[in-house]
Design goal:
Structural class: mainly beta
Number of helices: 6
Distance between the termini: 26 Å
Number of strands: 17
Radius of gyration: 30 Å
Shape: elongated
Helix content: 10-25%
Number of domains: 2
Strand content: 25-35%
């Protein structure tokens, strides 16, 4: 127990700061689809509302969840509301599960308007603007990345995903398709804060190094939540191009292949296919995903100063011999010497709060002074 204490000046000797550490996270498309026979690394549930992708077969004790996938549809809109024609029945005919998933995710990520209504996802990060419904997500594909990968948040402007937009091969199998890859990224996006889930950015299509355009906005990336929201459907209006499948032939792109041999395009799949079928159809199109995660390290540094006339004597009982003579002094008029090995931080009531050990003892005499830097990370 220490017998000599020195008060630390809070203004001069205690400093706090944050350090952000990043780790690159690569996810290959083969993990999402095809690396394991019978997709033993993809866990599907009896409720059919989402599925989970693991890095190993999920029954293995070493398996780690990578991300969850699900799909939602905005309820209450007909095809004519925003100029987008799905060429099928109104979107309100979709299953209740899809509508509930969209509403639940929108409530958590977008929030409510002044009337208490849940606001829909908006391509241009302006969910409160309801006068222009053409910018709203009619359908939404949700990728919820595991906290093990995301840590505290996804680092901004590091998310890159390659997705195939070609049609399924109707003559071979559901795993073969025209891999016309497009690049999705939040690079160049502003950071928006009008979400209850924290910061988020816009996901654009386009090549690396090319400035993003408003018409290339196909999704949203919520950094702290670790969730990517993508719209699968395409806009066929004269001015908008939103959606992953936004080409003139988007209606013919197959998203789902049934065991019966029927191939459903984006519109038909959104209306009639199950969530599992839609997730399966999208997973096989994933070429790769990469981003940097972020670990926010909070630190407090205590500058413990030992001036020339301080801490030259030790409180250790072995510092003196049986006669009371200081062991490190040969003659009575020699200067006292001590060796600093440990720094203790005490509460004002005398309770020991933290201990810092030096790598080797430091010799302390009246001819020297030291500042020992004690760092606490949390």
């Amino acid at each position: 127990m220490a017998q000599t204490f020195k008060t630390i000046d809070k203004a001069k000797d205690i400093k706090s700061f944050k350090t952000k550490l990043h780790e690159a996270i690569p996810i290959t498309g083969t993990i999402a689809y095809g690396i394991y026979t019978n997709e033993t690394n993809v866990r599907k549930y009896t409720h059919g509302q989402f599925q989970s992708v693991y890095d190993y077969p999920y029954l293995s004790s070493s398996a780690n969840a990578i991300f969850d996938l699900t799909f939602g549809v905005q309820s209450g809109w007909s095809d004519s509301d925003d100029g987008r024609s799905f060429g099928a029945a109104n979107i309100v005919s979709s299953s209740t599960d899809k509508q509930n998933i969209y509403q639940q995710m929108a409530q958590n990520l977008v929030g409510h308007d002044i009337t208490g209504a849940i606001m829909p996802f908006d391509h241009w990060a302006n969910p409160a603007q309801m006068s222009d419904m053409t910018t709203k997500f009619k359908t939404a594909f949700f990728m919820n990345f595991s906290r093990m990968l995301v840590k505290d948040e996804i680092a901004k402007e590091t998310f890159v995903m390659y997705v195939g937009t070609g049609s399924l091969d109707t003559t071979v199998s559901a795993t073969a398709y025209d891999k016309s890859m497009i690049r999705l990224s939040d690079s160049g996006s502003k950071v928006y804060t009008n979400s209850p889930a924290g910061e988020y950015g816009i996901i654009y299509t386009g090549s690396a190094g090319v400035a993003p355009k408003a018409l290339d906005a196909v999704g949203l990336l919520y950094y702290q939540a670790g969730i990517a929201v993508l719209e699968l459907s395409g806009a066929h209006g004269s001015t908008l191009g939103h959606g992953l499948f936004n080409t003139a032939s988007a209606q013919t792109i197959d998203l789902v292949s049934h065991s019966s041999g029927d191939h459903l395009n984006v519109a038909s799949a959104s209306l009639s296919a199950s969530i599992d079928e839609i997730c399966d159809g999208f997973r096989q199109r994933i070429g790769s995903i990469s981003f940097n995660n972020t670990i926010e390290l909070n630190s407090t540094v205590y500058f413990c100063r030992a001036n020339a006339s301080e801490f030259n004597y030790s409180a250790n009982p072995t510092y003196i011999d049986s006669t009371g003579k200081i062991r490190v002094k040969t003659y009575a008029d020699d200067s006292a010497v001590s060796y600093i090995t440990t720094v203790g931080l005490y509460h004002s009531d005398g309770a020991l709060m933290a201990v810092g050990k030096l790598s080797e003892p430091i010799k302390k005499t009246e001819a020297s002074d030291f500042t020992i830097r004690v760092r606490l990370d949390y």
